[in-house]
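A note from the maintainers: we've had questions about how concatenated examples are separated. There is no special marker in the raw files; a new sequence line simply starts the next protein. For clarity in this README we add a label.
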Amino acid sequence: GEITQAVMPAGSAAIFTGQCLHGGGTNTSGKVRRGLSVSFCHGWLVPVENSWLGVPLERVRQLPERAQELLGYAAYDGTSMGGGMINMYEVGSPKALLES
């Protein structure tokens, strides 16, 4: 593979795919440096972070159904392709949390 540095001025952003092995350089400024990681996964992939915990239920209930699904409030049924069910909550869909 190729190794390169993404040297950018403050306020810049680097966008890369999940195939990229990456790491941040040493923060020598003495100031806080923030980062934001946004990811989107196929339905059959379970994200490392549980997005359910990051957005209050009251707010999620106000979102469109597709946004709720992208946050993880939907179970994935792969049984038709020989797989199984993932992203379950209490042996059912996490969407039940929005209905309670």
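[label: protein 2]
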Amino acid sequence: MTNDDIPTSQKTRGLVNSLQRNLHWGKSINASLIMINAVLVFNNNGQPRLTKFYSQLDTVTQQSLLSQIFALVSARPASACNFLPLPPLLAPSGATTSPDAPAQITYRHYATLYFILISTSTESPLALLDFIQVFVEALDRLFENVCELDLIFGFETLHAVLGEMVVGGVVVETNLDKIVDGVRTSEGTKGKRKAVNSRDSGASLGRGSGFAALGWATGTGSSWR
């Protein structure tokens, strides 16, 4: 039997199964492809440290959406759940019923930074929380006890980590070792050098003490929720 003799449905299932075999959450295999519409990082003052949209939006809509999302997330108490509905800015003529429309915010708060994902309502919030955790752990390995200042001066490494994990809005890798190795291979020693330079720069500007380490590993105090 040639490839042309295989039904299209079987070809599609084969592609999905192949992708699923390469999509890991920790040591387990995820049951479906995870789609993300945007990845955002804000500090506690609402200043964006990362804004990556995988859906086309005009600049005005993006800015309005960023302001509304930060206002919603920053006002939530530490005891609140980590996912909530998206502000209805992305529906140009009222609410939309499309399952592919962005509709959900999932976030985690680490020390001075909010890590936020925008996705459809069909995505698992728990899987998205795991994605954020892996993202932060990868940054922590590369920057060695990462803090906000590292993301400012090491923005290329920040984007490189995200690029290893997400391509075109599809999560393609969540294995921590593979992500870190991929970034180190592409950047050589630049990631570690940027981390050192960023801390030196913060100290010389007298701002070093204002950028707390994210503290993802211990989860003590207000370092994360």
